[in-house]
Amino acid sequence: xxxxxxxxxxxxxxxxxxxxxxxxxxxxxxxxxxxxxxxxxxxxxxxxxxxxxxxxxxxxxxxxxxxxxxxxxxxxxxxxxxxxxxxxxxxxxxxxxxxxxxxxxxxxxxxxxxxxxxxxxxxxxxxxxxxxxxxxxxxxxxxxxxxxxxxxxxxxxxxxxxxxxxxxxxxxxxxxxxxxxxxxxxxxxxxxxxxxxxxxxxxxxxxxxxxxxxxxxxxxxxxxxxxxxxxxxxxxxxxxxxxxxxxxxxxxxxxxxxxxxxxxxxxxxxxxxxxxxxxxxxxxxxxxxxxxxxxxxxxxxxxxxxxxxxxxxx
Length: 314
Known about the structure:
Blueprint: H1 2-11, H2 18-60, E1 63-64, E2 72-73, H3 77-83, H4 86-117, H5 124-132, H6 139-149, H7 156-163, H8 179-203, H9 208-216, H10 221-232, H11 234-249, H12 253-258, H13 270-280, H14 284-313
Antiparallel strand pairs: 1-2
């Protein structure tokens, strides 16, 4: 028995000396400090520019504040006022209308461009750059040029429509009925290059062996696209749909420059409603409540899209 205990004691590893433990603890502390030194600048920027303003926004939505005076706590009064505000309801409907047009149209156009520019063509780099160029062009320049193109009397678009037989072409930006479709056309033209790049990246991950196997089995181009390309693009499609939804809900700059919410309130969207109430009418508490409503809309739609995508992936 004594020999067995002695053998077990001899076989057990010896405890590291105190100097090794101190060296390891110093190394772990140094690694932790190095890690925090990389994380901290980004976290400080996120906290100062995003987290603190968002928390302040939620607080302000329950107050009545016009910047110059004291913020008076009003509870849910701002949200109750939103429910009875006709302009807010119009802005919500216009935002949903814009999103319902912009999201599918942009997906179709950008995916079509990606499929076209995914082939080996002469000058393919030039065409990809040309398709992406509108996305990095100034919003003001885009709006000014398209306002001229959409001019009811002298614009090239209506001139072409008259030439091909349309006697009464749309009034576009001067028409309450056609102003939003015109904005959707310009927005799609501007955004298609960015989402085309995302779809191109997704197409690069589709195994060529699957297309070859489908071609050997007799599948035509459309069948290969539906049964091979689209299933492989599901993660990319989900990401593009979520990003397009969020960007569509918060559309602001293009509408501000092109139509300023007009004619009437036909293109008034939630972001512009928030801007008017906050910076033009100095009702920052009420504008904050509208911003919280927009935030909740984006969160709800994103969660629905997430669970829908998860359900289809099972």
